[in-house]
């Protein structure tokens, strides 16, 4: 039962020895959710607040989806389940990769308890590799360019981080072609407010 599993995940200490800021699993899920958002792992702001996508990346993501914060955080409709649930710490060029133990241990238990998911957004390379496996292309750009190949189950997206502004400028087709389709699909999945 999801109601039993979520408290176990939120109390997880599995990677505590590897997390410089300690464990603080961040996720939202309900069995009724129809949209699943999978990113990599919480960043520093999300680790501090405990609210997923509570940063500039989240603002851009909500804009892409065409959702208000209230709609985005309505877990009855939108599940937010990152590849790893805790902030992994910082490396030389940004956040460290998500801890693999989290995905391997918790996702096989959690995902079957979300039976109403109609679309899973795979945000960034880690989520795409984890869910698509060998069906992911060699690069994030190639995977996102092939977005129509993964529908209706998955939709790969670049990470909406402000650090990716150069990527958005180099690939204007993303906001011109993918974002409007994404908004249409999301609106069709979620009840109108």
Your description of this structure?
It is built from 10 helices and 6 strands. The chain is of the alpha/beta class. The chain has a single domain, classed as 3-Layer(aba) Sandwich (Uracil-DNA Glycosylase, subunit E), CATH 3.40.470.10. It has a 4-stranded parallel beta sheet with strand order 2-1-5-6. A two-stranded antiparallel sheet has the order 3-4. It is globular. The two termini are 28 Å apart. The mean pLDDT is 96.
Summarize this entry quickly.
The chain is an alpha/beta fold and 193 residues long.
Q: What's the layout of helices and strands?
A:
Layout: H1 2-10, E1 35-38, H2 44-49, H3 56-65, H4 69-72, E2 78-80, E3 90-91, E4 94-95, H5 100-110, E5 119-123, H6 125-132, H7 140-145, H8 147-150, E6 154-157, H9 165-170, H10 173-189
Parallel strand pairs: 1-2, 1-5, 5-6
Antiparallel strand pairs: 3-4
